[in-house]
Amino acid sequence: MRSPNSTIRRLFKRFLPHRYTLAGALVLVALHSTIPGLLVLLVEVVLDDVLVEKNTAALQWIPWAVVGLYAANGALGFARGMLTRSIAWRVLTDLRQDVFAALMEQDPAWHRQRSVGTLTSRLVTDVDNIQYGVSAIVTAVQKPLTLIVLLLAAMRMSPTLTAVALVAVPVVVLPIRWLGHRLRERARVGLDARADLSAYATETWNTLTGVQAASAEPARMVGFQTHNEALRAAAMRSFAARLLPSPVVETAAAIGVACVVVVGGEQVMQGQLLPGELVAFLLAVGLLNDPLKGLAEVHTLAQRAAAGASTAFDLIDRTPAIVDGPEGALSMAPSAPMLELDNVTIDYGEGPILEGFSLTVRRGEIVALAGASGAGKTSLVRLVPRLMDPTSGCVRLGGADVSRHSVRSVRRQVAWVGQEPVLLNATIAENIALARANASRAEVVQAARSAGAEGFIHDLPNGFETAVGEGGSRLSGGQRQRIHIARAFLQNAPVVVLDEPTSALDADHESIIQSALDRLCSGRAVLLVSHRKTTLARAHRVVHLHPAPSDKPRVGIQPVTKPPKLG
Q1: Residues 464 and 512 in one domain
Q2: More confident residue, 173 or 333
Q3: What element of type H or E holds 527?
Q4: CATH number at residue 433
Q5: pTM, to two decimals
Q6: Residue 41 sits in a domain of what CATH number?
Q7: Burial class (CB in 10 A: 0-12, 13-18, 19+), 156
Q8: Do 117 and 202 meet the contact criterion of CB atoms below 8 Å apart?
Q9: Among 161, 198, 361, 565, who pairs with 117 as Cys (CB 3.0-4.6 Å)?
């Protein structure tokens, strides 16, 4: 398990590419830190030289000095803030990109075991917390410098009172350290509660039709309230941990001020200290309160950043189940069978659902898989584009073992058309070109024409530039499936996987889609899963997958073939 300190060190390494910009920001921080000390010295001049000594010459420059110091304070604060925020958001953006890439590399089975809302919250909210890391760096420089400048100003006026004022500083250190560790723990709980709430809300929106049909809104409201209250409680505990250092520091500062008042008052009455010096000194001690709280805040900010970074690094470090093989891009031998499943076994940990299964599909051949639910049909077809790997055995495309080659090169050779068309919230043209982003408009139009989609696309208000909505919500089921088939035409892969491509369509739409699929399958090696007899009738071979007898559940299959009806 990663230690908190190692997480913080790894996070801060992400700032190294921006070290020159950060150095410039820290120079501005250093200049900014001198302003409070200079204001203290200016107050001393006003009290002693102007009010006590009646020095009128000082009145000529003091107003300009006040205006200049405050103008410099504002300008330095703005410049420093813009620089540090730009660094924070650059690091944040790069890290979020890495987390997104890591999530994209995880296989579909891993994603099915996790809530979309939870992963989205990790990607957005948890990573956002990392911006506190740059705040910790800036605070770690600015507050000590401000503290040093104020202490130098105080020592210039009275070294004895400075020592008296610092008597309560040790009271601050141990409680702040303890509270910082508590804050990290509570920040982690808060992020988890936010992720749970996001997951619950996302699940509700995705199933809203069924929820409303079942009149289950009250039950979902109760569940949401539970998660919402958990988030509120976690947020309050985290806020309390952030707030507690402030009264600890202020109490210590008050002790220091009280000691200064006693000792300094005696020195004024004995003529050892001017009244203006005492007032200016008390101002300096009062201003020490902010940098002291800032020192406490450094630990707090670092712990909040570490809480978000911990999740991000866990995701980045996770090795995907499907990784590139050692032999680079896949190259298919023209003389070899297009697709081979050789002695394949699939076991999800509860006994094999398929064991020792072999199948060969040649170019121009359609092989269908049929059988009861749970017999392993969908698991088998997922092996072809490496959406999962077999427990044992081998999958070959054009004679090449897919596990020995890069994942993307394997998937470029396989066009996938499933029961639920995968459409993004983008234009029709962009959805068709998803597998070939560099395709020309002419190629996109031709693919749509081959899929029988060109007609309805031209009838839409913006044609190929029509936005389809989330999940293709602005299109009918048949239209969505034709867009999906058009994508497969554009990909022009030698192997096609059809997983229940017409099961969700009515008879009229099925006929249209089936004609498009017939054109897509021509001259390609096709592996088909379907329950519909009309679809199975188009296959050259049908392999029936039968679970083993009930006394040996989920072990073995019996492949049965029939003479080809087509081809």
Answers
A1: yes
A2: 333
A3: strand 525-529
A4: 3.40.50.300
A5: 0.73
A6: 1.20.1560.10
A7: middle
A8: yes
A9: 198
Q: Which amino acid is at 120?
A: T
Q: Residue 445 is part of which domain span? A: 339-545
Q: Is the pLDDT at 177 greater than 60, yes or no?
A: no
518-554 burial, b at 16+ Cβ within 10 Å, e below that, comes to eebbeebbbbbbbeeeebbebbbbbbbbebbeeeeeb
Final residue belonging to a domain, choices 285, 317, 349: 317
By three-state DSSP, how is residue 427 classified? strand
483: in domain: yes
Together in a domain, 283 and 355: no
Residue 71 maps to a domain: yes
Burial class (CB in 10 A: 0-12, 13-18, 19+), 369: buried
In a domain, 325, yes or no: no
Task: Look at the chain and report how many structural domains it folds into.
Answer: 2
The Cα–Cα gap between 469 and 474 comes to 6
Which residues are CB-neighbours of 71 under 8 A, at least 6 positions away? none
Q: What is the pLDDT of residues 84-103, one digit of tens each?
A: 888 888 888 888 899 998 88
Label residue 372 by pLDDT band (50, 70, 90): confident
Q: In the numeric block, which tokens belong to residue 265?
A: 């008052």
Question: With 0-12 CB in 10 A as exposed, 13-18 as middle and 19+ as buried, what is 567?
Answer: exposed
| pLDDT tens profile 394-429 | 999 999 999 999 999 999 999 998 888 888 888 999
Mean pLDDT of 16-41: 82
Mean pLDDT, all residues of the chain: 80
